[in-house]
Amino acid sequence: MKKTFLLLCAGFFACSAVGQQVVVNTQNTSLVVSAPIGEQLKFVYYGNRLSSSDLTVLHDVENSNYNAYPVYGLTCPTEVALAVKHPDGNMTLDMVVDKVDSKQLPDGELTVITLKDKVYPFFVDVCYKAYSDTDVMTIWSEISNKQKKPVMLNQFASAYLPIRRGDVWMSHLYGSWGNETKLMQEPLQAGMKVIKNKDGVRNSHTSHGELMLSLDGKPQENYGNTMGVALCYGGNYKLRVDTHDDEYHHLFAGINEENSAYNLKSNETFVTPELAVTYSAEGLSGVSRNFHKWAREYKIAHGKDLRKILLNSWEGVYFDINQQGMDQMMADIASMGGELFVMDDGWFGDKYKRATDNSSLGDWVVDTDKLPGGIEQLVADAKKHGIKFGIWIEPEMTNTSSELFEKHPEWVIKAPQRDLVLGRGGTQVVLDMANPEVQDFVVKVVDDIMKKNPDIDYIKWDANMAILNHGSQYLPKDEQSHLYIEYHRGFEKACQRIREQYPDLTIQLCASGGGRANYGMLPYFDEFWVSDNTDALQRIYMQWGTSYFYPAVTMASHISAAPNHQTFRTIPLKYRIDVAMSGRLGMEIQPSMMSEEEKALCKTAIEQYKEVRPVVQQGDIYRLVSPYDDLGVASLMYVDTNKDDAVFYWWKTETFCNQHLPRIKMAGLDPEKLYTVTELNRIDNVPLPFEGKQFTGSYLMNNGLEIPYTHHVDYHNMTDYSSRVLRLNSKY
């Protein structure tokens, strides 16, 4: 009885599979559809991997009756994945299976089920790709029009999944600038839950195109049947979960079709973004581990490479760039053991010099008043200090106060018959990436910088404006509704060209902070800026949510000044370091304003981070106590794949007299191995009682360690903050 319950609640089902049964397997999961030729494609199952004996009887016991890719027009009172209008005005589709193909790819196995309309020459390929050595598969659709005239696509989801009703909870991310990736967890109730984006350029400030579904009740981190989905798209998206009067929640995911109706020309194929899907019986963290492994292996540029420790100039000097100041910051980060210096905004402009945010974007020439030796001298200075050099650009944007805009006003996104709507600084506008000339320009921005300075190691790529003017001066009048889609097609083409030319370059996604954290863009980028808010306490919450779908190797996390420049909160340096060390460690500060004691603490932290960097950036995450549980503490850990090395993080999130915090059990260790405990970034006058002691993995997972609520430091150094980072190593 228990086994049957798990099968019913943990999977997705459609009708009885009478006829051709198609099974897509990963290491530990199975997806099953029924695909008899000439009949409708039906969803049967998704969940834990099925045995051959279970597969033989599956069609006898799973009685759901849902199309695997539902279309509009016939028996369609509910939500659908695809809705069209044919050239003759007919708005119906009747799709049946035409053929099934499967082939082995270098990174997995692809199964394509072709559907055709019974009357019209109109086809949909429903594609399932199972990635090798991971428990992630992707689903997408390829929609083809063989009619003589265009077909209007009104809805065009990537995928649909029915989820058996029960005590199902959804975990998803929301927020705003400076407050990105907040975690929301809620039960799925009757009605429609919609998560969407309409920014046009950046799609992860207010919501994220990912979610997790806990199938056994309230979400738990390390146990419980849990499913996760992530839409691999950088543009406007929509995730719909419809719950009406049947036994299932109905999940649809794809491009947001609002104001984006697409005219599919004769013999044209419209390819929707991939929806990455995974399943784990090990709770939310189990789903995260699946996504992280898949991402590092297949979906992030240089995902298996360790990231450098850097100093970014932005919060240190803002627009006040000059040659001597940059050289001094390079010397400072090099002296602390850093590996890279990144010069941020403010270095460019000739006729219009970049002194604030209201001019010069598009004029990517060095301001020789600020940098008389040019970028070449900065690269040479970095080499002198034994570090690498990086630079900030925002190539998709321009200002009306710029030579580029004066020369090419037709390149910007602008509605006909309307005045420009202006963004940041009262002058910023967005270049039309649908235009091939703009794509060439964006590629040339990178090309000009790199050809003159081939030793540049890192580019920070920003995007600080939404599409506020719906109108393309390039697209014809009958394709104005293609703007959002064509923008991202053009952006991807430019990125592909840049990556072909500079495959080893590290590129960060920045977009007014965390506006571009998505798997549609990460194949061309190495990491993203989580948020412009560098406040360590708030970063615990933001990085916690981000970790649901993205590994630490992608999360730029910087030590910044106190008081913090966004919240004005004063947080001790030790705490700021301990938070930053849980992601890709960097610094966002003016070192000349730091004391020698502070520099020494950062130097030690950088040295110790280098030792644990492989575990943090490439290891498996186990989230232990959530800051959202309001228990006064947050804790997580990373464990390497061999379970030899681990890093445990503990942050106190609030302070009260006589407070009581939970003792935290660890996870992910080998119960039989002995782990030596070492505290990193220690500031206490005396070591912790377990410093240098050995414990079995079993003890640490069953009991944890008693973490002091405060630091044992001199009275004048006491604060209300406390944090610990422990290394657990079985090889000492």
Kindly describe this structure.
There is one protein chain. With 732 residues, this protein is an alpha+beta fold. It has three domains: 226 residues, Beta-galactosidase, Chain A, domain 5, CATH 2.70.98; 231 residues, TIM Barrel, CATH 3.20.20.70; 108 residues, Immunoglobulin-like (Sandwich). The protein is built from 13 helices and 35 strands. Strands 5, 6, 7, 8, 10, 11, 13, 14, 18 and 19 form a ten-stranded antiparallel sheet that branches. It has an eight-stranded parallel β-barrel with strand order 20-21-22-25-26-27-28-29, surrounded by five helices. Strands 4, 9, 12, 15, 16 and 17 form a six-stranded antiparallel sheet that branches. Helix 5 runs parallel beside helix 6. The longest helix has 23 residues. The radius of gyration is 27 Å and the shape is globular. The two termini are 47 Å apart. The N terminus is likely disordered.
Quick gist of this model?
This protein is of the alpha+beta class.
Spell out the blueprint of helices and strands.
Blueprint: H1 2-10, E1 21-25, E2 29-34, E3 42-48, H2 52-61, E4 82-85, E5 95-105, E6 108-117, E7 122-131, E8 136-145, E9 151-164, E10 169-174, E11 182-187, E12 191-196, E13 207-214, E14 226-231, E15 237-243, E16 248-255, E17 262-264, E18 269-271, E19 275-280, H3 283-299, E20 310-312, H4 314-317, H5 323-335, E21 340-343, H6 374-384, E22 388-393, E23 397-399, H7 403-407, E24 428-430, H8 436-452, E25 458-461, H9 483-501, E26 506-509, E27 527-529, H10 536-546, E28 555-560, H11 573-580, E29 584-588, H12 596-618, E30 620-625, E31 633-639, E32 645-652, E33 674-680, E34 694-696, H13 697-702, E35 723-729
